[in-house]
Q: What sequence folds into this?
């Protein structure tokens, strides 16, 4: 998930009231379909998702032609190479979209699961049972594959979804949604389980955010400006991650070989993902021996280093880190590196500058690991592994609709389980309350 | 929980900027105390809650004197008898405040609980561990006992809390908070785990609602106007219930004796609670035999009945129900009664007019019960028992801070468990992501 502010920069044409009416109409169709989705048996949803995967395969030619159109328009607009790459579909990428839907189809069904049950002294049996959230709005960047991931996860959890992808991917997303709907309908569930925004007008997003009571939850997926706007304007709950300012702390008791491999992987495997490390903290106790090999590996891998004075002193290729560097999510081959006073220094730095996303410690000391995992207040805290494991797929969630840095409702990777609520069902035998 | 809009009607005196500064100062103290609360061992919190209960007992004279002051001011202002009764403290009520704190002390500690754990094929062990939410703001009506319930539950879940009770109970609440803080500090935890609004100025509530990033969650507890204002203005997540428009559906396969006892209890045990029934639905299949005894019992218990034409025809004492009656939370000894076309008619009525709080079916037919519990989309769905079991204490939660009709984060009674979030802790052995 990386920035894509251009998605919201299409010219304003719709009047707000017209946008409100369009959202109301789409949401009404979703709400009409919602009870059938909520009641759908696990096997019905599995079949629908497999059928949707097949429909994407069957309509590959149509989808790729639509993608060609998006690509031509994007090139004419002068979009950057990395944005064009994210937009691009081909046979292999489309096959992985279908396989993603099949992976979600094979997940355990989260709906109807009895999360807890107990019997009260008066004989009442109370069960807490997972239920769908309802109608979910997803606003996302111009990555056509997100269309299928978000649609598939929402359906798996018995929800209806309204998808509003970035304008650059409008043709591709529309073609994919058409295929998903065809597949779902062929399997006997309502096609309106998955709908797309009927317009790319930016007013439509504003109207979605105002649609309290029609859309139950909004999920923004994309850059900081998009997520910030949704958090600011939404009149309904939001599941959104703001940023991933992830740290790797190399403790005094670290295995240096592990530390070197983890630091390079956490930063350089993919620099544009939210789980990429942005700051490396090194315990002063081992700075003398650990700093040079860590910096050598990172620089050899193509990473630019911005460091505190002690890090600069260790390697002439390091430039000076400013205060701003400690709060910057580079999403690029740049790493800030700082020597800290042991565990307390690391915890203080992370508490002050971190974003509560994912932070890792490298240590062979179980007590140090226990203190770090207890005291770092982040969605994901990792011992002796790369921060790039911050990913729904890597958690075994099949896919993810995003990674939440919020503590409310869902924290960390948001998969199908996180798109559910629950109800209490109480079975009695005539009990009245004294 | 019943309406108390007067709490917000104190004159405006503080400038908004001054109110913001006061909230910032209070929240800063809470945030400074939060790490110690989050780290506190279960035994520390149990001891602190027992110590707080003892401090309430030790300071009973001071608290009752403060309450006398509130009562005198409230009487001078001409408050209604029921409001005076809710405000009033005496030795017995104060002892039950202490016992409530001890009940919360004895609950299982929700923090640190491993909610799920699994091992990935690459050897990573993932644990999902409950953590506190952080700093909770509670805005509530003039019921002094809520001060201790809300403070105790928040502390049990490792949170810090800022309590803003209704202005009529200002002296009582301040004295209770002082006692709680004394008890907590005596047990070695930070007194700032529980703070109260340093002013009763209504601008303070507005400033709390703007304090995004300082207060993590707001919990409004009270009438519709208070909860509505908080939902409208809060810039942070809110756990709040809007209203309890609860139904009892007497199915064609009901045991009539159970139905009679449940209908009277659901409506009349206490009419002012959110779990009180507001509408009785009777299956046409048994209306001929069931309606008369049901109406007789209710009217004998002092309940006024507003009914559809068929209900009016069954008993001359029934007045006509208007469309508005089906959406009215009376919180009084009034019940709307309607004859419906079996299960489908009941489900349609509840979907159209219900508030998603608590609904009950009376039936001896297991299939009917299963359909009703599956299809009614409410926080609590009850078979063959009174809707008045919608209560955290009755669920075994020790106490409750409210009942949520939202599907996001917490639904139903909000106890200590519902005031937590979670983090993922991943243990590796040097894994890097391919």
A:
């Amino acid at each position: 998930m990386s920035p894509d502010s251009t998605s919201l920069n299409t010219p304003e044409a719709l009047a707000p009231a017209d946008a409100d009416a369009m959202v109301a109409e789409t949401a009404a169709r979703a709400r009409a379909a919602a009870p059938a989705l909520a009641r759908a048996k696990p096997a019905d949803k599995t079949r629908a998702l497999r059928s949707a995967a097949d429909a994407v395969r069957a309509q590959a030619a149509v989808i790729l032609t639509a993608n060609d159109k998006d690509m031509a328009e994007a090139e004419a607009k002068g979009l950057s190479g990395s944005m064009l790459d994210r937009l691009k579909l081909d046979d292999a990428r489309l096959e992985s979209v279908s396989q993603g839907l099949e992976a979600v189809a094979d997940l355990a069904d989260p709906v109807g699961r009895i999360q807890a049950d107990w019997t009260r002294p008066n004989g009442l049996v109370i069960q807490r049972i997972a239920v769908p959230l309802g109608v979910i709005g997803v606003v996302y960047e111009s990555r056509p594959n997100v269309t299928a991931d978000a649609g598939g996860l929402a359906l798996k959890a018995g929800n209806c979804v309204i998808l509003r992808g970035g304008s650059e991917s409008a043709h591709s997303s529309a073609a994919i949604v058409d295929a998903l709907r065809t597949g779902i309908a062929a399997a006997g569930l309502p096609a309106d389980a998955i709908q797309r925004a009927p317009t790319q007008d930016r007013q439509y997003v504003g109207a979605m955010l105002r649609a309290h009571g029609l859309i139950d939850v909004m999920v923004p997926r994309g850059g900081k400006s998009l997520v910030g706007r949704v958090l600011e304007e939404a009149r309904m709950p939001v599941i959104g991650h703001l940023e991933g300012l992830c740290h790797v702390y190399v403790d005094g008791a670290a295995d240096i070989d592990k530390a070197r491999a983890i630091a390079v992987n956490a930063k350089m495997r993919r620099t544009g993902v939210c789980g990429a490390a942005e700051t490396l903290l090194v315990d002063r106790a081992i700075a003398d021996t650990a700093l040079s090999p860590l910096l050598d590996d990172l620089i050899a891998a193509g990473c630019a280093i911005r460091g505190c004075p002690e890090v600069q002193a260790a390697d002439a290729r390091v430039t000076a880190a400013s205060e701003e560097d400690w709060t910057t999510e580079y999403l690029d081959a740049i790493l800030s590196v700082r020597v800290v006073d042991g565990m307390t220094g690391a915890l203080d730095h992370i508490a002050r500058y971190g974003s509560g996303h994912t932070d890792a410690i490298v240590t062979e000391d179980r007590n140090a690991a226990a203190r770090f995992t207890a005291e770092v207040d982040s969605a994901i805290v990792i011992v002796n592994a790369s921060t790039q494991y911050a990913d729904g797929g890597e958690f075994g969630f099949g896919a993810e609709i995003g990674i939440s840095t919020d503590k409310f409702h869902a924290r960390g990777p948001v998969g199908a389980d996180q798109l559910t609520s629950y109800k209490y069902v109480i079975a009695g035998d005539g009990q009245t309350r004294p």
Summary: Residues 32 and 410 of chain B are 26 Å apart (CA to CA). Residues 1-10 of chain B have pLDDT under 50 and may be disordered. Chain B has 15 helices and 16 strands.
